[in-house]
Amino acid sequence: xxxxxxxxxxxxxxxxxxxxxxxxxxxxxxxxxxxxxxxxxxxxxxxxxxxxxxxxxxxxxxxxxxxxxxxxxxxxxxxxxxxxxxxxxxxxxxxxxxxxxxxxxxxxxxxxxxxxxxxxxxxxxxxxxxxxxxxxxxxxxxxxxxxxxxxxxxxxxxxxxxxxxxxxxxxxxxxxxxxxxxxxxxxxxxxxxxxxxxxxxxxxxxxxxxxxxxxxxxxxxxxxxxxxxxxxxxxxxxxxxxxxxxxxxxxxxxxxxxxxxxxxxxxxxxxxxxxxxxxxxxxxxxxxxxxxxxxxxxxxxxxxxxxxxxxxxxxxxxxxxxxxxxxxxxxxxxxxxxxxxxxxxxxxxxxxxxxxxxxxxxxxxxxxxxxxxxxxxxxxxxxxxxxxxxxxxxxxxxxxxxxx
Length: 404
Known about the structure:
Blueprint: H1 2-23, E1 26-40, E2 44-47, E3 52-56, E4 73-77, E5 82-92, E6 95-104, E7 117-127, E8 130-138, H2 140-143, E9 163-173, E10 177-184, E11 191-193, E12 196-198, H3 200-205, E13 209-217, E14 223-233, E15 249-262, E16 265-275, E17 284-291, E18 298-302, E19 304-315, E20 318-329, E21 337-342, E22 346-360, E23 363-379, E24 385-403
Antiparallel strand pairs: 1-4, 1-5, 1-24, 2-3, 5-6, 6-7, 7-8, 8-9, 9-10, 10-13, 11-12, 13-14, 14-15, 15-16, 16-19, 17-18, 17-21, 19-20, 20-22, 22-23, 23-24
């Protein structure tokens, strides 16, 4: 697998170079070589071999009364080593064409195999302040504003993450205003449903996710904006009783975000009303509200969550920061049974973290400590969580990165 990956990279570089020379296009290579280490005092729900920690796992008591999940874990990995190229293509009249392609290697230093993963793969057409993009880019719910941390967690699950195939048209005046409208599909995971996490539920829906965002901003980097998002999935095509069914889970998500930047100081924050947004490393899900006694066809209602984060940063060569995130489950609007989702038995959760980094041209060194507390319990008739108990996770983290 590693040999095939290296051959793919070599072929990619050769193809891009030859193609750019033949067409007169301009291109810029970029990337980073990165190593990360973490330790945590208990088992956690994770993605990507643990570099994204979503929440600590609840107690799992064995026959002797001991908690199986009260066991530490640690990892050293270079999964975020990546490279890419930006290509400035020819002009079509007043339209400037361009493209971007980058990959990361998903390999680790602890002996597991390495594979390639597509990150951004996009073609763009720009005229004046208008942009048309088609390909894989960051989802508006996350890409609208990122927090800054040392860890690759980047604020998950309070901050949605993920790159998705989409068609986007946007107007962007770099000193004043941005507005965008996107048709979005799923990749690298998908929604949680009866068959686990999969993209099939959105594909079978026949309707892409729809996203709109708008923001005002200035040249110094301060901004204020919002995102409105809609998704409708089909959990099943056939009931357990063998009948064809037309079931849907439809949900709106709304987000407000902002950032203030002055000199070396930055304050940023985001708040989200979340309904069944499990395709993007967040908590949530849905439950059954009604079932036909003959055909088995079901109706559903999404859980309603509120999640927010805030980020305070200061410095340049020496840069420090703090991050805080909070999420709360308010249950569904109707009585539900058979909950499906991620972390549906968590009532609320918060994370606080602090980091310090040393930055010189092309190099960054950083350390971080984060504390996460999740309150587990049992779901009532509306999916709310009661009779809670706290589960705590401590997570020190270190990173070194060379970028070019």
